[in-house]
Structure formats: structure tokens, C-alpha cells
Design brief:
Radius of gyration: 19 Å
Low-confidence stretches: none
Bound molecules: N-oxalylglycine, nickel (II) ion
Mean pLDDT: 91
Shape: globular
CATH superfamily: B-lactam Antibiotic, Isopenicillin N Synthase, Chain
Number of domains: 1
CATH architecture: Sandwich
CATH class: Mainly Beta
Strand order of the largest sheet: 1-2-12-9-14-7-4-3
Length: 344
């Protein structure tokens, strides 16, 4: 295969191993137009408990907007590398374009474009508690695509709204007030991502995204009809595909909900496998709180019998640490929530 591709080859434990696929069970599909909130909350609660993943239909985001996003994303990734590199992200500004070949920060076989819901937000420049420095995060937009920015901003606005709805339903399913966490999002660093996974000549050796958990509160994702997203399900002993459903959004809980719920819900591990023939696009929205927020289990879910399973952590410092690790290609050691776990 030659040196050209060596940066993408996964270590043996992370290779896709297609023989371990399980098709016995399916990620729940939830109809958000259901009129009984009680039923809806109960279904979402069950899905969160069992999977940490579900799909939503009748979510209210117009189909024609999603088609426009798809068209603009395709045009964007077709731009010359020179154009795309004008929007390159760096260690201080985590928004914009990156790929593994030109920035060599990951083994992921994909290209990415990120932008924030709130342009110009400030995040800590490092995870050092004594460093009070801040970095301003500015969105970059391709000048040669005149409608790109407007369409993407409309999309992220709609997904932000949908995320609050999901946040409310998930909070209710934990027995918490629907608006329990709403104040955390005043200076949110939520972002929308466009993912492009080119066809891969050696799909059994590489991954679109390696196994990971999302560090956010929750993720809402549109995927095209190629397929490839999989959830780890230890109970059934392997990786379960998240079947593409036209017009549906995939929702998954992130690490912050795991901590807030005091481990009642889990941030599920997932990955993206590749296809040798077909490219794949996906468009996640990651709901993040403001950087000043201390993440800790909800006090309503903690008691003497059921003590807090995590120490509180400052989200901005944690995020700075993760972003830095991305750029220095460190392994995730020290960057995962299990480091805040209180051991019995
Ligand atoms: C991610 C991710 C899934 C997908 O970007 O964190 O898991 O379907 N993406 O592309
Ligand atoms: Ni993810």
C-alpha cells in the first residue's frame, strides 16, 4: 500500500473487523410529533438507558433546508485544496477546515469543516488552571460560495432549537425539570460540523472516525444513505450499524449527559467504517455548554445511597485540553471523563 497511506492505518485493536457486526437489534426510532409528552419522555428515557442513541423523525427541520446543506457541503469539499486550506483550523482557533493528510493530526479518513453557533466566543487558551488566557474563536467562511454561510447558519439555528427540545425531553426522562440545564448555554460553544468521508481503497484497515465518545451534552446528526456509523453495544457483543433513514436525525448522548445523569445514562462509544466505492457525508450538531460551566452530577440524582460518581470539572479547561491533544496527536490519556470518576 506504500507510505502514502500509512498515517491512516489503525492499530490492530481498532481495525474494523467486519466479522463482528451484529444486526440483532436496532437503534430506536422516535416520532417527535407524538402528542403525548408522557409517552415521548418514556420512549426517550428507555432509548437513552439502553443505547445512548436513537433516531428522530418528524422533528420539524424542513427537508429542503437539509438538501441545501447537502448541496453546499458537496460544493465545499470539491473546492481545491488551496481554497480549503485558506480556512484551515489551528490550535488557537478550532473552527474551519481540516483533514488528516494536510494537518496530520488524526488517523481519521475524512475531511471536516466546523463552525460555531456563536461566532466570536472566547475559550480558555490552555488547561493550566493558572493560565487565565482566552482565545477568541472566529468562524471562517468560503468566499467563493455565496450562499454557504447563510444556509449553514440557518441549519445550525434549527439544530440548536431541536437540541433544546431533546435536552428538555431527556431531562424530564431523568425525573428532572425540563429546563434544569438550560442556563448552561448562554455562552455555549456548540458547533456544527460537515464531515466528508471519501471512498477508501482499504476499508478493512482504516476508519472514517475511530472509536470515541462525544465530549458534548448531545449530538444531532444527519447522515446520507451510504451508512457506516456504528454504536458499540457490549450486551450484544459488538458494533451495531445505525441504519440511514431518509430525513431522520441520529441523536446520541455525550459525556456531559453521562456525568449529569450520574451514570444513569451512558455516552455511547461509536465509530464510522468506510466504503471502498462510495463517499459519505454527515452533518452533526454538537451541543456544548459555555466554557465557564462546572460539569457535575445533578444534585437531584445524588443521595447518600447513590453518591456522586464524578468530581466537578470546568468545561472550558477540559475542552482546551482536548483541543490541544487533537493538535499534538496525543492519545486521549488524561482527556476523558473517567479521569473525573470518583472510585469507590
Ligand atoms: C463525530 C461522529 C458520526 C458520523 O463527528 O463525532 O461521530 O456519522 N460522526 O459522521
Ligand atoms: Ni462522534
Amino acid at each position: 500500500m506504500g507510505d502514502m497511506y500509512s498515517a491512516y492505518i489503525q492499530s490492530t485493536e481498532h481495525r474494523p473487523n467486519f466479522s463482528t457486526f451484529v444486526e440483532v437489534d436496532e437503534i430506536p426510532i422516535i416520532d417527535l410529533s407524538e402528542t403525548s409528552q408522557e409517552n415521548l419522555v418514556s420512549k426517550i428515557g428507555k432509548a437513552c438507558e439502553k443505547w445512548g442513541f436513537f433516531q428522530v423523525i418528524n422533528h420539524g427541520v424542513p427537508k429542503d433546508l437539509i438538501i441545501k446543506v447537502e448541496n453546499e457541503a458537496k460544493k465545499f469539499f470539491e473546492l481545491s485544496m488551496e481554497e480549503k486550506m485558506k480556512l484551515k483550523r489551528d490550535v488557537f482557533n478550532a473552527t474551519g477546515y481540516y483533514d488528516a493528510e494536510h494537518t496530520k493530526k488524526t488517523r481519521d479518513w475524512k475531511e471536516v469543516f466546523d463552525f460555531l453557533v456563536k461566532d466570536g466566543i472566547q475559550i480558555p487558551s490552555s488547561d493550566d488552571p493558572h493560565d487565565l488566557g482566552l482565545c477568541t474563536q472566529t468562524n471562517h467562511w468560503p468566499q467563493c460560495l455565496p450562499h454557504f454561510r447563510e444556509i449553514m447558519e440557518e441549519y445550525s439555528g434549527k439544530l440548536e432549537k431541536l437540541s433544546y427540545k431533546l435536552l428538555e425531553l431527556i431531562s424530564l426522562s431523568l425525573g428532572l425539570a425540563g429546563d434544569k440545564f438550560l442556563d448552561c448555554f448562554k455562552n455555549q460553544i456548540s458547533l456544527t460540523r460537515l464531515n466528508y468521508y471519501p471512498p477508501c481503497p482499504f476499508p478493512d484497515l482504516a476508519l472514517g472516525v475511530g472509536p470515541h465518545r462525544d465530549p458534548c451534552v448531545l449530538s444531532v446528526v444527519v447522515q446520507d444513505d451510504t451508512g457506516g456509523l456504528q454504536v458499540k453495544k457490549n450486551l450484544v457483543g459488538g458494533w451495531v450499524p445505525v441504519r440511514p433513514i431518509p430525513g431522520a436525525f441520529v441523536v446520541n448522548l455525550g459525556d456531559i449527559f453521562q456525568v449529569w445523569s450520574n451514570d444513569k445514562y451512558e455516552s455511547a462509544e461509536h465509530r464510522v467504517v468506510l466504503n471502498s466505492q462510495k463517499e459519505r457525508f454527515s452533518y452533526p450538531f454538537f451541543l456544548f455548554p459555555g466554557p465557564h460551566i462546572m460539569v457535575k452530577p445533578a444534585e437531584e440524582l445524588v443521595s447518600e445511597k447513590d453518591p456522586a460518581k464524578y468530581k466537578a470539572y470546568n468545561f472550558g479547561k477540559y475542552y482546551a485540553n482536548r483541543t490541544h491533544a487533537d493538535f499534538t496527536k496525543q492519545e486521549d490519556e488524561g482527556k476523558e471523563i473517567h479521569n473525573f470518576k470518583i472510585l469507590d
